[in-house]
Amino acid sequence: MADRIELLADRLGELLPVHPSAALLHGDLWGGNILINGDHVSGLIDPAAYYGHREVDLAMLSLFDNPPIAFYEACGLDDGWRERQPIYRLWPLLVHARLFGGAYVQQAGICLDDSASDRRVSLCVPKSALASMAKPQVSDVSFMIEMMAEAFNSPGEIFAGLQMPGRMAVTLVLASPE
C-alpha cells in the first residue's frame, strides 16, 4: 500500500486545487458529532477545527454516513469534487486502519483505486438502510448501484464490496465511454 500512496502523492498537484478557498472545518465531521433537533441541525460537537478545503469535511462525513446528493448540490461545490473525495477520505481511513485494522485497510485501498481512476464512485450504505428491507440481498445493493449508474449516465458493475461495523461499502465501476 505504501507504494500506491507514494504514487498518489506524486500526482496530488494534478488532482487537488492548488489554492482552494479556505473554510473553517469541523475536522471530525460524522453523524455522531451532529446534533439534530427535529428536522434541524442544532449543533456540532467534538470539533478538531482548522482551516482547509471544505471538501475535506464532506469527505469525512461520507466515510460513515451517506448524505443524499441534494445535500452536496446545496453546498455549491466546484467541478471535480466527486473525484477529490477519495483523496480526502484517505487520511482518516489510514488513521482508522492503523488504530483498528480490518476493513479500514480495505477501504483505504479502495480510495487509492478511486483516486487512480475518475470512473469509480464509492457508496457507503448504512446497514440500517438495508435493514428496512425484508431480506437484504445482493440484488438490493445491485439496484442501488444501478440507480447510481443511471445518475451518472453510465452502466456500471460492482468492483468491490466490504463489510464494516454498521455499514456496507461498495464501489461502482462506470463503463468507459464508447
Report on this structure.
It contains 7 helices and 7 strands. The chain has helices at residues 2-15, 55-64, 69-74, 81-100, 103-116, 127-131, 138-151; strands spanning 22-25, 34-37, 40-44, 50-53, 120-126, 156-164, 167-174. The radius of gyration is 16 Å and the shape is globular. The two termini are 32 Å apart. Mean pLDDT is 74; it is low at 118-141 and 151-178.
Topology, number of strands: 7
Count every helix, treating DSSP H or I runs of 4 or more residues as helices. Answer: 7
Straight-line distance between termini: 32 Å
Low-confidence stretches: 118-141, 151-178
The largest sheet has its strands arranged as 5-7-6
Give the topology string: H per helix, E per strand. HEEEEHHHHEHHEE
Broad shape: globular
Give the biggest beta sheet.
3 strands, antiparallel
Alpha carbon gyration radius = 16 Å
Mean pLDDT, all residues: 74
Percent of residues in helices: 40-55%
- Derived from helix and strand composition plus strand pairing, the structural class reads alpha+beta
Fraction in beta strands = 15-25%
List keywords for this structure.
47% helix; globular; disordered C terminus; 178 residues; three-stranded antiparallel β-sheet; alpha+beta; two-stranded antiparallel sheet
Task: Please give a quick description of this structure.
The chain is an alpha+beta fold and 178 residues long.
Write the layout of secondary structure elements.
Blueprint: H1 2-15, E1 22-25, E2 34-37, E3 40-44, E4 50-53, H2 55-64, H3 69-74, H4 81-100, H5 103-116, E5 120-126, H6 127-131, H7 138-151, E6 156-164, E7 167-174
Antiparallel strand pairs: 1-4, 2-3, 5-7, 6-7
